C-alpha cells in the first residue's frame, strides 16, 4: 500500500485528478451538491498543480466538466449554500 503522506506525481497525480472529478460528477448526478462542491474543489486544486502536458492526459469530458460546466453552478458569482449564508448573518 502506498504511503498516503507522500505527494503524488506523474501518472499517479493524473489518475487521482481523474478519480476526484469522477467522484464529484457522481455526487452531482446524485444531487448531493455539498459533497460535489467539496470534491470539485479538491479536484480543482490538484488539477491546478498539473503541467500543461499532464492536463492533456485528462479526458476532455472531465476537463470540460471541471473547468466550465461546474463553474457555472459552483462559481464565486453563485449564491452560497444556505449553511454559508446563515453564518454570515
Shape: elongated
Helix-strand category: mainly alpha
Biggest beta sheet attributes: none
DSSP strand content: under 5%
In total, the number of domains comes to 1
* Number of distinct beta strands: 0
| Rg over alpha carbons | 14 Å
User: Please, how many helices?
Assistant: 5
Distance, first to last CA? 46 Å
Order of helices and strands: HHHHH
Low-confidence stretches: none
- Average pLDDT works out at 80
Question: What helical percentage do the residues reach?
Answer: over 70%
What do these coordinates show?
The chain has helices at residues 10-29, 33-47, 52-57, 60-74, 82-88. It has 89 residues and is an all-alpha fold. It has one domain. It is elongated. It starts with 9 loop residues before the first helix and ends with a helix. The mean pLDDT is 80.
List keywords for this structure.
89 residues; elongated
Question: How would you summarize the topology of this molecule?
Answer:
Layout lengths: L9 H20 L3 H15 L4 H6 L2 H15 L7 H7 L1
Helix pairs in contact: 1-2, 1-4, 2-4
